[in-house]
Amino acid sequence: MKCKVLVAEDELIERKVLCKTLQKYLGDLILLFEARNGREAMELFEQEAPQLVILDIEMPGLTGLEVARRIRETDKNCGILFLTGYDKFAYARQAISVRALDYLLKPYKEQELIFAVEDAIRQVSSPVAHMARPRAEVPTLKEEVDDVRTAVIRSEMYAFIENHYREDISMQDAAAALRYSDAYFCKLFKQCFKVNFSTYLNEFRVQKARQLMTDSRLNLKDISAACGYSDANYFTKVFKRITGKTPSEYRLAAAEQAVKGE
Length: 262
Fold this sequence. Notes:
single chain; alpha/beta; Rossmann fold; Arc Repressor Mutant, subunit A; 12 helices; 5 strands
């Protein structure tokens, strides 16, 4: 069954580009609905009961935050993903209470969007696994972080991924483990790594997979599992999106280069 996804964005061009991108990469997984503003988003939500909602935070009439709060009044498990301008990120502090799955900072890259939405779809497909977890007490958002502290935070984030990339982890897991609010963690991660958490995690896992592929004794299914992908088909899709080749094609090309001594 396809996942119902509602996109609410008041800027026509941005909404069309976003929906076209989602349809291009995830059309076989999703049933897409478009809303031009917050009020239309609420009407579509009541009519269609989508499992995932992508909301621009700043919209006329009802803002994305107001829509999210209303959704939470009737649906505790609906996945919520926010779109927000980097300079307006302070709004995301208010989003903690609605338990957003992720925050895409405009302008975002196409790959960031797809990885974030794919991750959200997996989470809403198993709501108990991620959304029902107890929340850690977290500090409030600070506006400025100096270079030294940023370096320390980057090291902590990298260490968490290095230690847990083999597991089924989400941005919320990392934020809770490092004792940050989801919104603050999202902002800091983007500052430190220039991409969002789900994109970086997938790129990290694929790099680990490429290293394992040099060992011909390991089959691709085992490599997939060793790098945190329980679904080998999804691993293949992610691997090809990042490298341009399927795992089999990549391994064959690497073997041919090794024979040639390149």
